[in-house]
Amino acid sequence: MMNIGAPSAPVVSPAPSWRNFLNFGNPFRIFVSLALKFTSAFISGPSKTGEITQGNKGRANCYESASSSMATASPTSAEATAAVNNEGLNLPTDALVDILLRLSPIYRRLVRLVCRHWRDVIDERTPQIQPPKVLAFFSSSKSASAYVVDDLAGGKCRKVWGVSADPDTKTSVDVTMVGTCNGLLCLCDNKKPGGTVAVFNPVTREKLRIPKLPVSYRGGYSYGTRDTYTFG
Amino acid sequence: MEVDKGKGEAEETRKVAEADRDTVTLKSSDGKLFEVSKEAAARLSTVLAGMIAGGSIDDNGTDLKQIGSEALENVVDYCNKHANSIPSAALISSSISFNTAPFKEPEEWERKFVDRLSHDALFDLVEAANFLGMERLLDVTCHKISEMMKGKSPDQIREVFNIKNDYTKEELEEIRQELAWAFYDD
What we know:
Shape of chain B: elongated
Order of helices and strands of chain B: HEEHHEHHHHHHH
Strand content of chain A: 15-25%
Structural class of chain A: alpha+beta
Strand order of the largest sheet of chain A: 1-2-3-4
Oligomer: heterodimer
Number of domains of chain B: 1
Strand content of chain B: 5-15%
Distance between the termini of chain B: 60 Å
Structural class of chain B: mainly alpha
Number of strands of chain B: 3
Number of helices of chain B: 10
CATH architecture of chain B: 2-Layer Sandwich
Order of helices and strands of chain A: HEHHHHHHEEEEEEE
C-alpha cells in the first residue's frame, strides 16, 4: 500500500480516536458516511457499560443498587439516595417497566435523565433502538473497502466489504459507494461506462446487481464526468 | 355464542361463591376491615383468587400487611365498581384480545376512578395492585401515570413524582450529549 501521507488523512477527523482509524489504507478518496439517524449512537461507550453492569447486581431493589454506586461516588450523594428511599416515588420495578413501555422510544431515552434507577430500568428492561454505527468507505485505484465502527470511542471497527486489485495483472479498482440504507451498501463499479450498480448485504454477503438503468451515455465523450446515483 | 358462554361461566362462579359466603373480608396494614365480593376479588386479583381457592381466607379479616387502608379502600372500591359497571361478558372478551393489544385503553369510569386520586394514593394503589396481582387495575393506574408524564421534561418529572436526582453533574452532561445525537440537536 502506498502512503500518501498527510494531505488525504485529515479529510474527516472529528475526534482524535478517529485519526488512527482513518490512517489505515491510503485514501485517494475518502467517503465517510455517517449513518446517523435519531438515536444516541455510540453513546453506550465502555465507561457506561460498566455502570450498567454494576446496576445489574442488585435488581431486587434498584434504589439500593443506585445507592451503592452513589456511596462510592461521594458521601453527600449517599444521603440523597436515602431520601429517595424514604419519600420519593417507590414504584415496584415491574410497574415502572409497564409505565415506561407506554412511552415512545424517543421520549423513553429522554427520561433516562430522571435518575439512575430509571436509566437502569430503561436500559435493561425496555427495548432499545439499535444504535446506528458509523460506516467508512475507502476507495483508491488499488482497493476499495467499507468499515463499520462498532465502538467509536475505543476505535474498534471491522471490515464489512472490500475488493483489491490483482497485483499480477494491471487491473485497477474504481468503486464508489452510492449510499447505504438499513445496513445495505449500494456500490457502483465505474469501470464500465455508466457504471455497474449493485446492492450488497455485508451480513449475508449477498450481492444483488441492479439492472442496467436507462441512463444516457455518449460514448467516449463522457470522460471525467460521472453518472450520479443516490441510494437511501 | 361466546358472550352467552361467558355469562354462563360467571353465573356458575357466582353460584359457587354463594354456596359458601359471597364476600371476603380484607384487613389493611393498619387493621381496618373491608368487605369485597368474593367473585370480583377472585376475578380481578390472581393473588386473592389463589387465596380463596386455597382456603387461606380468614373470615375475621385476611391480613394484607403490605397494603395501607387508603389503598385497600381504593382496591375494594375498584372491585365493586368493576363488578357493577362491566358485564362479565365484556371482561371475558377483553381478556381474549389481551394478547393482541398489550395495553388496553381504560374505560371511562376507570379513567374517572384514577383521576380523582392524589399522587400518593395513585402510587400506593399501583403497589397494592402489583402486590395483589390485579392486572387490569395495574393497567389502568400505569396508564394514568404514563399520561401524567407525557410532555414533561426530566426536571418536571422529578418534581411531580418526587424523585431525587442522583446523577453527578458529569453523568448528566454525558447523557445529555447522547441525547444531542438522538435528537439531532446541537
